Amino acid sequence: MTSVYRKITAVAAGVIFLFGCTPEKEYPAPGGNWNTGGSEGEIDAWNLTDWSDKPSVDPIVVGRHLSERFVEIPNSNWGSIDKSPSSFVTYPDVCAYLGAFWYAEAAGDTDVIQQLVDKYNDVITGVSKQANGNPLVTDLLWRHESNRVDYYIFGAIALHIASIMDDPAYSGVTFHETKESYLKFGLQYADSQWEFFDIEGFNSRFNSPEYNKTGTLFKMSKSDYDRWKSYADRGYSWQTRLWIDDMFMITALQVQAYFASGNKVYLDRAVHEMRLYLDELPGDKGLYYHSPSAKFYWARGNGWMAVGMTEMLRILAGRDEYAEDRNVLMNKYISMMSSLLKYQKSDGLWAQLVDYGTMWTETSGSAMFAYAFIQGVANGWLDELIYGTASRRAWKQLNSYLRPNYDIREVCEGTGAQNSKSWYENRKRLVGDTHGQAGMLWCAFALTDLKKKTEPDSAGLSE
Description:
- The chain is mainly alpha-helical.
- Helices cover about 50% and strands about 0% of the residues.
- It is globular and about 65 Å long.
- Residues about 1-35 and about 35-40 have low confidence and may be disordered.
């Protein structure tokens, strides 16, 4: 009786939510697409642990295939696997590394963990090659291009490896360096994200003949320096530039530094930085602009926000000293999830511009939104019936976009910010791009982790 009452109450709440608001003119028809759906065969439509009605989408199976696919591909070109490999490991690949590690740890799959450790070792030791046959660049601290934040997240891989090395569960994994070596390498990136110099210091750093091999000399302008200094003086990273994806790139590195070192200064930085981005980029629909000058709700950009807030809420749980920060984040998270629920398409995914439902479906942002929903249900932040239904539908539909080799279709190419609807509508739609692979891996991790925690003795998890 309690269960039936709960379901009726949730349905009633959903009806109020769907029909109690005035739709905006660009609202996706029919709009507000969640419903309880009754049941799908023998499985409740909101159940996130039982996939026996469709074994091909079982997160444990899919996660293993996605991880192995990531291991086998060469490094991407800013996410794209169809272009010549970049000269270094780009940030979408770092996000896929983290997703694959998280999935394998939740599944207890030490074979995948070994493969990931080996893949990273091939980069560090020069086995992995660029298209011209040269080793990948690993001294990314010294890159002088404006998008340094994209380079520095590379340190997160070493930091994550360092953070798991003392766990007895991974005693059978062969780590190729000492924990101290991994830690030292990764912390260089995390610390340098906050290490501020004067103009001469920056010019000297980025023109060091040992590292600057591009032949392009760096000369900082006074205006750039003043902008960097304005952030540094307020306790933010000098790499702050208020592009929506940077919020995740900066905080993810600092969080990994915290997990690996135990030093709370890294978590303080991450929380402080995240709140800046949340304060500076909000729109009027519970969503976030790509940048202050590009006032569009780009799916993957909002995905970074959704995932970033989700991860920070998980980390801050039970930490009383961050109670005020967590309350702020939780309110913003709930507002965003409510808005995303409203704009979810009837098939369970989201449009390239979230509030233009007739625009093409974009899978990387959709996977990130699904991840935020799944974790919300798993952690009790979101209603299980409403958001469990939305999550289940999204995961099933995302799997329909996977090719037989587990490359996902309809991933927006890497995209700079533009204040133009057509700019986003006409972006290339890639296959196997690691932005999308990362989002799928995160979902596989969240669903696998939920099953492990709710059904610890269940069959299917890797041994």
